[in-house]
Amino acid sequence: MSVALFTHPDMIEHRPGPGHPERPERLQAVLDALDAAPLDLDRRAATEAAITDLERLHPPGYVARLLTAAPRHGVNALDPDTILSPGSVRAARLAAGAVVDAVRAVARGETARAFAAVRPPGHHAEPDRSMGFCLFSNVAVAARVAQSEGLARVAVIDFDVHHGNGTQAAFEADDSLFLGSIHQMPLYPGTGAASETGLGNIVNVPVPPHAAREAWRSTFAGGLMPALEAFAPDLILISAGFDAHRRDPLAHQSLEAEDFAWATRAVLEVARSCCAGKVVSSLEGGYDLEGLGRSTVAHVQALGEE
Length: 306
Ligand SMILES: [Zn+2]
Prior knowledge:
Elements: E1 3-7, H1 24-36, E2 41-45, H2 51-54, H3 60-67, E3 76-77, E4 83-84, H4 88-107, E5 113-116, H5 138-148, E6 154-158, H6 165-171, E7 177-184, E8 202-207, H7 213-231, E9 235-240, H8 257-275, E10 279-283, H9 289-303
Parallel strand pairs: 1-2, 1-5, 5-10, 6-7, 6-9, 7-8, 9-10
Antiparallel strand pairs: 3-4
Helix pairs in contact: 1-9, 4-5, 7-8, 8-9
Zinc ion (ZN) binds at residues 160-162, 241, 243, 284-285.
């Protein structure tokens, strides 16, 4: 089936500066790889997230502060990792907006599968704190929007190699939301131990550095999928970071592009039984351009399987 692709070229105008791993070329590499692949994509221009939607998750004071934080010239560092250029706030609103638009399209029955090709990523941004390259918590905002559209139970599966501390902070006190995360530990941001369970709605399955592909797969299948199915979601979101790829410079995992396709199929199998196959995926990390491009194509291709 066709996959709705939500993106916008203005997200390339978030320029955190020379040497920063979360660089504009990442999104270009993703879009170039998707263009070159034989995929059935329904292309949509993402729109900026409305302030009312951002405030479903982030406190109004936080949203107001971020919306005026972009510099007129040069850069403004919110912390050593999270750096704004003049185009960053529009990019961040487009990134959240792309996932929100994707969720509304699925909630309203226009499509069952969507992928948001975005940057900056979102899963480290907590409700009241930007960090780790992330400004708005794109997927967590979209989960709240999904609930406002009548999808009461929303699950996030996060296979980015870093723990999604922001999504966890947003979900841990609300058992209508579920987070299942596989990530390398130890690694930034240091959270994500298996003992962090929220109200029973948070499942963290850390893997050690240099885990074998087979070990990663069995942890994903055995550690996350039964809990996802037991939660019985009305919609599944994927925080799709591709930095567990073996080429990635920020972590030490062994995955190939086809492993991301395999993980996508595992999520789809649950989605078919729980929620009529409805899945919205959003790009998070992935810092080797070749690994990122290939992995995204494998993921989106699998996302389009019936
Ligand atoms: Zn990451």
